[in-house]
């Protein structure tokens, strides 16, 4: 009897251990990014050539004066090109022409505004712009970043070695960051090339799901690459992998950079919020028109992105270019986007059964762009949606 019990216990332990070992890993538990990170990054607007400490300071000033900080944006992130080499001891060196005061002074300035500071590196030998990467210097660089006061690190994937493992490389940097003892948001940027949603949950706080965003609605039609429509199609099938501390990254926002109409930018922002994607502005916040400010500062849409349950929304209905997208919210409500990808305006209806409600359930509907309550609805909600545009509502039973 005893032997049988012991054998049974052992078998359970073995099987149980096996089960636990292969259970899907939970998100990275480094205490940060419990809701999708919000901030600004230099790349989409200033790229390599036009970014320097004066620009970055002005963006930090503007994040505060424009109301972006109050709306929830907090990270000021310098992308590629701040670094020029290493000293004899291997320490990474900032460009003395572009950052004459040094990175520590810039981080202090950003912190002085009540904001957080982010920086960029690469898992290969060189960054995408050919600056020194972190390969072989992971612990040294992580220590340096922590000493400077870095709160957010984006690590790119250019100039890696043939066969280099993305999972091992990013795990190395995760551990190097953890060893500093400083809470640092870790942004994995390998463009979705090795399906990071399958392995990066316990490694990074966010991972790029796609190649670089371009400032166009439908880039396939324009010059190729990933526009808003291409990215939303890539984000849809991976929605179940996102959650608090570990997010699918749809790339930085193009809102305000000039390549889309105001309605397209509104739809772009609506979809990123529905995805619970990081909201990293990529425009010049110091020179924002009121229309663009009205998009980036829309508190109701931001609240959808930042919903504490952290569920990524997905497509629930499609009829040609007319689509319904839904995101479950912590209060039992739904954020719904009616998206018209077509070239003429059309009525789109969200059926309650598609968003997980019984058809008989009455619900309040709040239009998040018109900023008004619509009539109470039962069974479905429909609206006329212009071409290349979205209507976004919050539905509360
Ligand atoms: C890659 C990244 C971009 C940007 C550039 C910088 O293309 O995906 O987001 O960081 O590198 O060189």
Supply database-style keywords.
eight-stranded parallel β-sheet; six-stranded antiparallel β-sheet; alpha/beta; Immunoglobulin-like; single chain; 12 helices; 2 domains; 18 strands; binds alpha-D-galactopyranose; 397 residues
Please give a quick description of this structure.
Helices cover 29% and strands 23% of the residues. With 397 residues, the protein is of the alpha/beta class. The strands form 4 sheets. It has an 8-stranded parallel sheet with strand order 9-8-7-6-5-2-1-10.
* Main sheet attributes: strand count, strand direction, barrel closure: 8 strands, parallel
CATH superfamily of the largest domain: Aldolase class I
- The helix fraction, in percent, is 25-40%
Fill in the CATH topology of the largest domain.
TIM Barrel
CATH C-level of the largest domain? Alpha Beta
Strand order of the largest sheet: 9-8-7-6-5-2-1-10
Strands, count: 18
**SSE ordering:** HEHHHEEEHEHEHEEHHEHEHHEEEEEEEE
